[in-house]
Structure formats: structure tokens, C-alpha cells
Amino acid sequence: MSRFLAPIHGWLFNKIKVAESLEKDLINSYREVYGEEVDIIVNKINDKYGKPLDDGLIEDLVDSTNIHGWLQNKIATAETRQAELLGDIIKKYGEQAEKIAFKTFNNQANELAQKAKDIYESDTAPKLYEALNAYILEGMPCDNVNNVTIKESDILEWKNTKCLHRGYWEAAGASVETLYSLRFSWIKSFIETMNPQFTHIVKTEGAIFIHQVLIK
Questions:
Q1: For residue 177, what are the domain limits?
Q2: pLDDT tier at 1 (50, 70, 90 boundaries)?
Q3: Which of 106, 99, 82, 70 is nearest to 185 (CA)?
């Protein structure tokens, strides 16, 4: 049980806030097109999972008696709530809603990558991977879901040893395939905005995803 805040906790907290910011962007994008009907879906989901975190610092919001457990719970809640939002709206409104989701995901990735340029170096694949992991949720560090298999200046490859997202998405009744596509599109947009000479590709090896950040 974690009783003292450390830099890793702030790092995870910021990633949760990024995920919840994307959720808010999605709600706003859908509300512009579908109006008050979106609020009915949002209210149902918030009643089920709880609302996103209030604005504020981690030290003002976290359960200081169980920091690790609190963060783990907020990751699960953020991912499941966003998945149910997407699942319900795409089921209701179809292809148009899916296109809006892709646009919203990519817009956030582009905006964050522009900001990341002022914080992280971006001239090599490992540096791009480091920047990516400052923003995108991939469970807790102790989950050890990513196994880096190639680490060179022009290419970094990692394998997802297990997928932590699928369970949340299935629990929410959302399309796993659609949510994978949205996630991978976000990653590609982030990488290509940070350094247009690089891109991101995904291959499969059985049930394992193999990711590469590499020069085009």
C-alpha cells in the first residue's frame, strides 16, 4: 500500500487526467451534433461509474491511505466510462458518430504532441516512445504490459504481453475492434505530430500486438 506521494504517482495521475480530458472532448463533440440526447447517455454513465475527477492537484484528491489502489481504481473507471460512452453513442448514431470519435481522438493527440515538443526530445524512436508514455494510459507500472524488444535510434518495437483495456471495453459492451482502432490512431497521430519523419505501425502475433515507432 502506497502512503507517500512520489513522482510516479503524479505521472499516472496526469495520464488519467488526459484520458478524462478526451472523454470531455468526446462529449462536447457529440453534443454539438446530437444535442441533449447525449446528456441522457452521459448522466446514465456517470450514475453507473461516477463522474470524472474534479479539477485539482493529486495531493488534494487522492486517498492518501491507499494511493496505489486509488490510482488503479481511477484508471479502471476512466477507461470503462469512456468505453461505454463511445459504445452507446456509436450504437445509437452509427458511422457518423464513429467518424467524430476518430477526429476527436486525433485532435487531442495532435494538441498534446505539440505541447510535448517543448518538454521531450523527439529525434529518435526511444525518445518518442518516452514522450508517448507520458500521456497514454497503459495500466500501472507494476502491470508490466509492454515488453520492448528492439531499441535503436530509428526504430523501437514493443509487444503488449497482455491487454488491460479489452476487459474494460468488454465490460462496457463496446466494440473492442473500434476501440483498438481509435487507440492506435491516437498513437500514430501523436508520433507523427511530434516528428513527421517517424510513424507508428501495429502488427499481430496471435493475440499479441507488436508496435513499432520507426522512420517512414
A1: 7-215
A2: very low
A3: 106
User: pTM score, two decimals?
Assistant: 0.93
- Asked whether residue 2 is assigned to any structural domain, the reply reads no
- Residue found by looking up cell 487522492 in the block: 62
* Residue 162 covered by a domain: yes
Q: Give the three-state DSSP class for 215.
A: strand
| CATH, residue 151 | 3.30.1380
How crowded is residue 130: how many other Cβ atoms within 10 Å of its Cβ? 15
Domain count, the chain: 1
> Is-contact 14 76, C-beta < 8 A?
no
β-bridge pairing 155-160 and 208-215: antiparallel
Q: Is residue 88 part of a domain?
A: yes
pLDDT in tens, 142-176: 777 889 999 999 999 999 887 788 888 888 888 88
Q: Vertex 101, ends 98 and 107: CA angle to 5°?
A: 145
